[in-house]
What we know:
Blueprint: H1 9-19, E1 64-71, H2 78-90, E2 94-101, H3 104-113, E3 120-123, H4 130-135, H5 143-148, H6 157-160, E4 174-187, H7 188-194, H8 202-214, E5 218-220, H9 228-242, H10 248-254, H11 258-261, H12 264-278, H13 291-299, E6 303-309, H14 312-315, E7 326-329, E8 341-351, H15 358-368, H16 371-381, H17 398-407, E9 413-415, H18 422-436, H19 442-456
Parallel strand pairs: 1-2, 1-3, 5-6, 8-9
Antiparallel strand pairs: 3-8, 4-6, 4-7, 4-8
Amino acid sequence: MRNRRKIGVISLAILLVAMLLAACGQKKGDTASPSASQPAASPPASSASASASAPADSGTKLTGDFEVQYFVGGYGDKWWNKVIDDFAKANPGLNVIKSGGPQINEQMKPRWIGGNPPDFIYIDGAGLNDRQMVEDGQLEDLTDWFKTAKNVDGDLIGDILAQAPQQYGGKIYNIPLVLNSWGIFWDKALFKEKGWTEPQDFQQFLQVGDQIKAAGINPFIHTGKYPYYINGAFLYPAIVSANNNDPSILQDMAANKPEAFRSPAVLAALNKIVQLRDKGFIDKASVQINHTDSQMLFLQHKDAFIPNGLWLPNEMSKDIPSGFDFGFIPSITQDPGGKVVANTSTATVAVAAKAKNKEAAKAFLQFIFSKAQASQWAELSGAPSNIKGDISASNAPNYVKDAAKYLTDPNTVVIPTITYNADVDKAMMDATLALTIGKITPEEWVKRVSDAAAKVK
């Protein structure tokens, strides 16, 4: 939750802090959360409707039906309800139709297959894959439109994005709306109480893991039902670290190059998972549980560390114990003195190729990609937007400040969001899960996945 563009580390950090005022997947942007849980109540958002209307460079009045499809998961639906209502008020000639919910992707599938899709889609949640939608010809080519598209404030949309749109064969079909960073979470309050050191590298992680285990707590839990959590927050950063901090190896993996999976860097990263496994750090419950179950055990201090995305605090807002203080670091797999590696992911928006009201859909894109809507998204979803923002007025929680500390460091390696072939991705997830429980060796992981890549190349 992708062939991704590189972005400036500082821009990403500013975005994360400014947009994340409170707290993936099924693959969300390809990696958003599969959850349908709702966020906790947020402070009232300032209205963004004053600056919104039809396209900034056009006096055209929008008319007819306009339908929006949006998945409701860990980010909730408060923002979608507000922004759609604002857009409808700004365009009274439109009949705006909301099609949203936790099962919406499955419910709308027959319409997409039948050539009668909604006009606009938020690509997030289980059952959607942006690359597959492009390959199936379901999304409108936005390449030329994007070059000159301005938001309702008159800003070029391309200039205000923290992470640029992914290109497929040199063309743009979808635009990142939500930006997430994977990483490792813990409870700072628990660590302070126990006198444990918050890890800055893999050696410190192993050392404190021994102390945690000795105290009768499982050092590490992950979401076995959705192994992309451990891949995104642990394995991929470890591969980049072992590849001399060069993320191009992941791009080669996404291009289905079998030799990339056979790289010594991949074996080195897999052996770090083996170290966790052989030291007994991995909670045995991990193999069979979903994301919310693993997160609940983490919040109950049954487990000290969890690999996850920045949506975690918001997704579990109703269950966070009093005094719990989220600690966060994008990666813990680097060697002492090595660079932190931040693996990012996005959730995107697009116009259906067979949309009946493409004019309204593009106007809606111009409406939502404004700084006012970015702020409103943060207030109502508790998640970071992909729009650059000013952190001066931010009252960010501790874990966001932790994220900013690493992401503003020029030594941090930021991995642009990467989408893997669906079959290869599944092969990686299945193999990683098997590795965590000792069913296969790192070498067998490599063979399984490189064979899968060779088949689709």
